[in-house]
Structure formats: C-alpha cells, structure tokens
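Methods: holo model generation. Sequences were used as deposited, without trimming of termini or removal of tags, and paired with ligand SMILES retrieved from the corresponding compound records. Each pair was processed once, and we did not select among multiple samples. The sequence and zinc ion SMILES for this entry were:
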Amino acid sequence: MDKETPESCPNCGSELNRSILSQNLLLGELKTRFINVFAKKNKDGYCGICALKALPDANRNYKYMSERVFGAYKNYLSSIPILTIENPDKWEYEILGVVTARTFIVGNEESMKKGEDQCFFKIREAANSLNGNAIIGVSIVYGLQVMTVYGTAINVLNEDVFSEEYKIAKRKYKDLKESRDLLEEFKKIRK
Ligand SMILES: [Zn+2]
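and the model returned the structure below.
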C-alpha cells in the first residue's frame, strides 16, 4: 500500500493540491533528501511553494561542496610526481600502462607552458584513474601546432619516498570521501 499522502506540506504547512490550476505537490524522495542533506534540514517533505527557497539553498551548498572537493582533487593531482627518468632510486612500484595527452599550441612561450600544464593535468588524471600515483619516463614531443606528452603510469608501493606535500594533498582529498559520495549520489538531479 502507498504511504498515506498528507494534506499539507510537512515543512511549511501549505495545503497540497492535485488540481491542475492550483497544483501544489510534494517533491519526490530524492529531491527531499537532497534538501535535507544540503540545506541541513530534517523534514519528511517539501512542497512546490517552500521548495522555491529550499532548493536554491541546497543547490548553493552543493556547489560550495563540489568546489571544495574539486579544489582538493586538483591539488592532489598536481602533487602526483611526473619524472623523465625511468627508474627512480628506492621506488618500488608496479607498472600500470602508458598515459598520453595532446593539445594544440601556438609557437610562443606562454602557449607552450599552458599546453604543458594541460597535458600534465591530463596524464595525472589518467594515471589516477588507473589507480596510479606517479608517472615515469615522461617525454614531450612537439609537432606542428601540437604538443604530445606521454609516460608510464605506475603505482608506487612505498609512498614514504614521496614529498610531504604529496602526502598532505592526498590525505586532504581522501578525507573528503564522504562529500564525494554525496555529490555523486545527487549528480543526476543537478542536471
Ligand atoms: Zn511546503
């Protein structure tokens, strides 16, 4: 049997109404939970009237949380070591596979630096998605208006050889696991 539908909104008390002309319905389960989680409330339901305020409040906090998580993600990624050498001293690692990135450049210093940053970000993302934490044997190849960067993603088992900066950035990102899961859960209603 369906859950009994209340006659008024559990949050603002407005009368609920199914008729087309003065329709006021409760939000679905997912949006209700979204408001409770992100607008830090705890009600059984929200109607079309109070959702006009509650949804933007929740959206604002969702955006704030996703900016914080993305900031920590970028910070962590940029601390992933990229090395041109093949076999760093004292690193014990397993090889995961080749990572590549390519971008368009024009022939000035600024564009090359920007292209390099973009490509490094992309190969670090690729390494991270292979569960890697470093890239070795990195080469940059310049073609006509194109820059290609490639290397080998590895998983370093003795991370104690890494810098403090890396360890702090990684911990900060991993500590946001709960936030990342929440953002993931509500991704579809944000579209
Ligand atoms: Zn309401």
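Residues 80-162 form a domain with the Translation Initiation Factor IF3 fold (CATH 3.30.110.70).
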